[in-house]
Amino acid sequence: MKKLSLILLSVIFAFFLTEIIIRYIIKYPDYGVESSILGVPYSGKEFTYKPYSKYWNVEGGNNVFSRNNAGFNGIDIKPGTDFPKIFVLGNSFIKASEIPPDKIATSIFNKKLSEEGSNFQVVNMGFYAHDPYQLYFLSQYFRTKYQPEAVVLVIERDYGAWLGGHPQPLNFNLPADFGNNETGLKFKLPTLFRNSSAFINLLASAIKLSRGGNNESFTDVSADENNLLTNDIKWLPEELKTTILEFKKSYGEKFILVSIMPKESLNNELAEFCGKNDINCYTDMEVMTKQNRLNQNGHLNELGNKLLGEKLYEYFKKHLHKSK
Fold first, then answer.
1. What is the pLDDT of residues 150-163, one digit of tens each?
2. Beta strands at 121-126 and 63-66: parallel, antiparallel or unpaired
3. Class of 2-323 in CATH
4. pLDDT tens, position by position, 165-187
5. In angstroms, rounded to a whole number, what is the distance separating the alpha carbons of residues 225 and 129?
6. Three-point CA angle 146, 148, 151, nearest 5°
7. pLDDT tens, 264-275?
């Protein structure tokens, strides 16, 4: 019995020592997950995060950053209806987990609005490895919480392979369980353990990676994300056009499309398509250049985020002027 007690004490001591090393020396954070959202098609788990929870990323260096007061990447946003919200939707190029929160494009956009005395607040709705179809559903979930005054979709690629991989034709009807939070023990218990321990969170992340899963903390830019344009693409995918039209149908004049695709012919086609369908659209070829990306072909670096933030501000001001 005494031997068993010593073994048990040794295990407990080893666990706490490992936790201290991982949390305070390596600085790997705990999970930070608040809830899991149901009903977003073909995207696996969707999470909301606790305010000021932390995340770790290695692409821009070994960095630990904090989310804002609403659990999103970027600087704090002011709550309440007196501060109308602007959604900026995109994948990990918008989420920008590699960059300090105050240097992210959406933060630059937000600060420029604040400097002119505007009450608009920019919400960073970048989601790792998500295409515009999935982002449409996430926007529908968060619009019930924030009632956005503008919805900006940023695309940096044609998304042909991504959107073409979904069952066709694309179905935009909200599933029966849409927006519900997962409540089963299968979600609650692992989340409780990972939220309580950086060591358990790191172990769970490593197991997921070993089984072929993705973890954005350990990922630079996946092969799919690095290949911005479908091979030999000449025309915009019909699935992308369909998704853009659905955004327009849902948000009307509040919807703004921004393309930073590095291919002029696709941007020209997109501008023509948007013109015919009365969609607010802006295109840019300056953001996605080598000097604006980490290691020349990764996510946007601080310079790229600054430029994108300034472009978003410029386009939004043009949109406001047109709306008057």
1. 999 999 999 998 99
2. unpaired
3. alpha beta
4. 999 999 999 999 898 888 889 89
5. 8
6. 130
7. 999 999 999 999
**Token pair belonging to 85:** 């919200």
CA distances from 54 to 24, 30, 46, 49, 126 (A): 13, 7, 17, 9, 16
Q: What distance in Å separates the CA atoms of residue 226 and residue 250, rounded to the nearest whole number?
A: 30
The pLDDT-based confidence of 210 (bands split at 50, 70, 90) is confident
Amino acid at site 225: E
The pLDDT tens digits of the residues spanning 241-294 come to 999 999 999 999 999 999 999 999 999 999 999 999 999 999 999 999 999 999
Q: Which two tokens stand for residue 281?
A: 């659209």
